[in-house]
Design goal:
Elements (H helix, E strand, L loop, with lengths): L4 H6 L8 E3 L7 E4 L2 E4 L7 H8 L5 H9 L2 E8 L3 E8 L5
Amino acid sequence: MSATIESLLKDPRMAGADQLVLQAGKAPTVFNSSGATELTRSPMTPFDIYRLLQPHLPDDKKTALMSQPTTNFRLNVNGAGTFDVSITKEGGG
């Protein structure tokens, strides 16, 4: 997958969205009041998700994920706004 987190969040289909879900084995999906829309046709791998979020993940949150199954942070994307990000590790992480 060649998308960046910035390109996903600036996608016009994100307008009015409640949530963008990045889940391994599934395409990036936007949820809003009218339902769900996949932003790409390609399912994401755990590495794809890591590659998208790692450059933006604060050091204290990287450390937290070593011992906790979840962490949250705010992401400011120039031209798209500020987003609340929640990361949850499932299974083996």
